[in-house]
Amino acid sequence: MLGTLPDDVRAVLDRFVTTEYTTLDAAGQPITWPVTPYPHPEGRCIDVTTGLGYPKKARDAQANPYVALLFSEPRGSGLAEPPMVLVQGVADVDERDLDANAERYKHELLAKLPATRGTMPPKPLHRFMDWYFKRIYVHVRPERVYVWPRGDIAGEPQLYDSHLEEVRSGHSEEPEAAHPEPAGGTVAWDDRMDELGRLYPSAVVSLTAPDGFPFSVRVPVTVDAPARRIRVGGAPVGVPWQPGLACVCAHEHAPDFSWQRNFHVRGDLVRDGEAWAVVPRKLVGGFELPPDSGLRHQLATARASLRYRKRAKRELARR
Question: Which one of 200, 206, 270, 271 is most buried, by most CB atoms within 10 A?
Fold first, then answer.
């Protein structure tokens, strides 16, 4: 269905530097991370990729192929007032030829983000970084596309669906999936959550829709530290809000992707008066290269690299 989408939507899919990719883990927890999207060579899918040393993005998609890609951060795309686009699709995990995937990744990364060339190690050292360069691709075949013109979440999104006649008739052959209930338990608070609403005036909130697909939308967020809640603003239309497991993903990057930072908060989506809020259960930091990276951050990155390398060795050993 990609070829039938309007030109402004296809421009978003082609030119955005990042997309917020959401999978569902074994407990039904939505997990959202920013990744770089690439067009599939045959034009039928949108591809994302992850390193062999941190394969969870792929392993969750293998276990549950319902995934989502939200295109909500236009920085670096060169597009003025682009729509916000949510793609819900079915994932196919491709790790049949890791070396071929590595070559494809190096070519596509430098073609899309030339500034990353300066952050890459010399080619002779690539063999010591198999945990990063050996790539797993996830091919996402779109089933449904939501479009918010100019990113305006106050308006009803436009819908493009591979089962559009079912949608128009009010009947769907897809059964409703069991909805993951709020986890409850201990509230986990982290000082970094205070960046929400301050450093990150908006963030991506992901939940699970009744049909079992993840549903993501970028909304204004504020932090209520005394109440230990992340409050959702903007009153977005067309979102299947219901109490359950949720993820709040915050990220930013340079237009040329010379730096990036990100984290997400997993928790419970709850009704909060007339609005919604997320009760945090866990904060997870992402793979970051902040603009002010110092020695302390470099040491932390080196320690993480050792973990990724060990995981990659385990992944290779099980083949």
Answer: 206
